[in-house]
Amino acid sequence: MAEEILGRWKNRIEGLTLRPSRGGRFEVSVNGKSIFSKAELGRHAEAGEVAGRLEELIGASEGH
């Protein structure tokens, strides 16, 4: 997922932090705003779901 995000928005993303955790957590936030929460939805993200939400937030990727 990190490769997909960095590949699509490498010119628009200043940084990306991955924080390992325990207990099946999967939370994604951008500038402090949650864009996906496994705890809230009760499921893991589907393929492309996080990238789609990121695209909604920061705009279409260059060249796609």
From TrEMBL:
Top-level division of the source organism's lineage = Bacteria
Q: Which UniProt keywords apply?
A: Redox-active center
Q: Which InterPro entries match?
A: Selenoprotein_Rdx-typ, Thioredoxin-like_sf
Pfam families (UniProt xref): Rdx
Q: Under which name does UniProt file this protein?
A: SelT/SelW/selH family protein
